[in-house]
Protein backbone atom coordinates (compact mmCIF):
# COMPACT_ATOMS: atom_id res chain seq x y z
CA UNK A 1 0.00 0.00 0.00
CA UNK A 2 1.47 3.36 -1.04
CA UNK A 3 0.34 6.56 0.66
CA UNK A 4 1.02 10.13 -0.52
CA UNK A 5 0.97 13.10 1.84
CA UNK A 6 0.06 16.73 1.17
CA UNK A 7 0.22 19.39 3.89
CA UNK A 8 -2.05 22.39 4.36
CA UNK A 9 0.14 24.51 2.04
CA UNK A 10 -0.14 22.00 -0.80
CA UNK A 11 3.39 20.66 -0.39
CA UNK A 12 3.56 17.00 -1.47
CA UNK A 13 5.79 14.64 0.50
CA UNK A 14 7.45 11.38 -0.52
CA UNK A 15 5.16 8.39 -0.66
CA UNK A 16 5.20 5.96 2.24
CA UNK A 17 5.27 2.23 1.50
CA UNK A 18 3.74 0.00 4.17
CA UNK A 19 5.96 -2.98 5.04
CA UNK A 20 5.96 -5.66 7.74
CA UNK A 21 9.16 -6.57 9.65
CA UNK A 22 10.23 -10.21 9.29
CA UNK A 23 12.79 -11.40 11.90
CA UNK A 24 15.70 -13.06 10.09
CA UNK A 25 19.10 -14.69 10.54
CA UNK A 26 21.56 -13.89 7.73
CA UNK A 27 25.01 -15.25 6.95
CA UNK A 28 27.36 -12.97 5.04
CA UNK A 29 30.79 -13.94 3.80
CA UNK A 30 32.29 -12.88 7.16
CA UNK A 31 29.54 -12.46 9.80
CA UNK A 32 26.13 -13.61 10.93
CA UNK A 33 23.42 -10.93 11.20
CA UNK A 34 20.22 -11.05 13.24
CA UNK A 35 17.56 -8.42 12.56
CA UNK A 36 14.47 -7.57 10.53
CA UNK A 37 13.92 -7.36 6.79
CA UNK A 38 10.81 -5.36 5.87
CA UNK A 39 8.45 -6.92 3.32
CA UNK A 40 5.34 -5.50 1.64
CA UNK A 41 2.13 -7.15 2.92
CA UNK A 42 1.40 -8.75 -0.47
CA UNK A 43 4.93 -10.19 -0.89
CA UNK A 44 7.14 -12.91 0.58
CA UNK A 45 10.61 -12.68 2.11
CA UNK A 46 11.95 -14.28 -1.09
CA UNK A 47 10.41 -11.48 -3.17
CA UNK A 48 12.34 -8.89 -1.14
CA UNK A 49 15.55 -10.91 -1.52
CA UNK A 50 15.05 -11.12 -5.31
CA UNK A 51 14.90 -7.31 -5.77
CA UNK A 52 17.65 -5.75 -7.90
CA UNK A 53 18.96 -3.05 -5.54
CA UNK A 54 22.63 -3.47 -4.55
CA UNK A 55 21.89 -3.29 -0.82
CA UNK A 56 19.33 -4.93 1.47
CA UNK A 57 18.11 -2.99 4.51
CA UNK A 58 18.15 -4.75 7.88
CA UNK A 59 16.73 -3.02 10.97
CA UNK A 60 17.43 -3.71 14.65
CA UNK A 61 20.56 -5.54 13.48
CA UNK A 62 23.03 -7.46 15.63
CA UNK A 63 26.29 -8.48 13.97
CA UNK A 64 27.82 -11.68 15.34
CA UNK A 65 31.35 -13.02 14.92
CA UNK A 66 32.22 -16.64 14.07
CA UNK A 67 31.81 -17.63 17.75
CA UNK A 68 28.30 -16.15 17.94
CA UNK A 69 29.42 -13.17 20.06
CA UNK A 70 27.69 -9.86 19.32
CA UNK A 71 30.31 -7.43 18.00
CA UNK A 72 27.96 -4.59 17.03
CA UNK A 73 24.32 -3.51 17.23
CA UNK A 74 22.62 -0.85 15.15
CA UNK A 75 19.10 0.33 14.30
CA UNK A 76 19.87 0.18 10.56
CA UNK A 77 22.30 -1.86 8.49
CA UNK A 78 22.64 -1.89 4.69
CA UNK A 79 24.04 -5.25 3.54
CA UNK A 80 25.52 -5.59 0.07
CA UNK A 81 23.51 -8.34 -1.61
CA UNK A 82 26.53 -10.00 -3.24
CA UNK A 83 27.96 -10.60 0.27
CA UNK A 84 24.91 -12.60 1.44
CA UNK A 85 25.42 -16.38 1.64
CA UNK A 86 21.98 -17.29 3.04
CA UNK A 87 18.94 -15.82 4.84
CA UNK A 88 16.43 -17.67 7.04
CA UNK A 89 13.34 -16.40 8.84
CA UNK A 90 13.70 -16.58 12.63
CA UNK A 91 11.04 -18.30 14.70
CA UNK A 92 11.98 -16.50 17.91
CA UNK A 93 13.56 -19.53 19.62
Q: Can you characterise this structure?
A:
The protein has a five-stranded antiparallel β-sheet. Strands 1-2 form a two-stranded antiparallel ribbon. The radius of gyration is 16 Å and the shape is elongated. The protein has one helix and seven strands; from the N terminus they run ββββαβββ. The longest helix is centred in the middle third of the chain and has 5 residues, at 45-49. The protein has a single domain (19-89), classed as Roll (SH3 type barrels), CATH 2.30.30. It has 93 residues and is mainly beta.
Keywords, separated by commas or semicolons:
93 residues; mainly beta; SH3 type barrels; five-stranded antiparallel β-sheet; two-stranded antiparallel ribbon; 7 strands; elongated
Helix content: under 10%
Give the overall silhouette: elongated
Strand content: over 45%
**Backbone structural class:** mainly beta
Rg (C-alpha, Å): 16 Å
Along the chain, the helix and strand elements come as EEEEHEEE
Number of helices: 1
Gross CATH architecture = Roll
Instruction: Provide the spatial order of strands within the biggest beta sheet.
Output: 6-5-4-3-7
The average pLDDT is 90
Could you name the CATH class? Mainly Beta
The major sheet is characterized as: 5 strands, antiparallel
Using DSSP, what is the number of strands? 7
Tell me the number of structural domains: 1
CATH topology-level fold name: SH3 type barrels
**Low-confidence segments, ≥5 residues, pLDDT <50?**
none
How widely separated are the two ends? 31 Å
